Amino acid sequence: MTYVGKILVIVIMACALLFLGVSTVVFTTATNWKAETAKVKDKVNELTTKNNDANTQIEGLKKDLEVASKSAAESKKAAENRIAALQTDIEQLNRDITAARAEVTTAQENARTALTEAESRRNETNLLREQKLAVEKQADEFKLRQAELNDQIRILTRERDVAKKNSDDLRDRAARFSALLREKGLSDDISMVKGLASPPNVHGEVARVDQNNKIELTIGSDDGLVVGHELVIWRMKPRPEYIGKIRIIAVDPDQAVGVVVGKTIQGKKIKEGDIVSSSFYNAPRS
User: Model confidence over 171-188: pLDDT tens digits?
Assistant: First the structure.
């Protein structure tokens, strides 16, 4: 039985009890029975009308209850659907959060790797910068050295040109003297002059230079040297260069002593280890 039915039963029982009470009072009092009966009838009619109105209201309430129940069921179903949709959204959000966390973890790992690579590249850059500075410094030094070498080359070129000119002048003078001697009926063989022969083809080194600027050589009479021979002095390091001439003033079998003829090139001093040879044409090769 529904709640509305229970209400109706209670109302009907109440009406019945009320009617029973009224009847009992009427019969027990027995005073003005008809009038009381009429009153009771009127009362019953009134109660019946009220009961009918109550029944009508109950029917209306039943309909409202059915509508409310149907609306509640629909609302419940909509709420359940909404809850299901929200649960689906929550699950999707959880999956998205998990994926986002994985992406964040991957991004952090990539960031750490990138930072490590950046640090390594910065160190490599610093090293390359230092190497570049060192190379630039070395290049500057090479440029300075090249400039010095170019200056020395220009000086040597001028000295070579001067020496060549002097050599050409000497050859020309020698040719004129030879021609003059032949015109006078004399021999132009230098070996016939004062018994002094030309220096043999020799090569040696400067053994020592004493305080009087006398130069001791590692070659002597065994190599064909005699007093009066003139030899050419060369220096091989740091580069081959002509120094000057010396004249032999004393000879032993394995050594000789000489002095500088005139001046050396640019006033350079002859040193131990310099090379000595018989002429320009027999100059040592580097």
Answer: 676 677 667 656 755 555
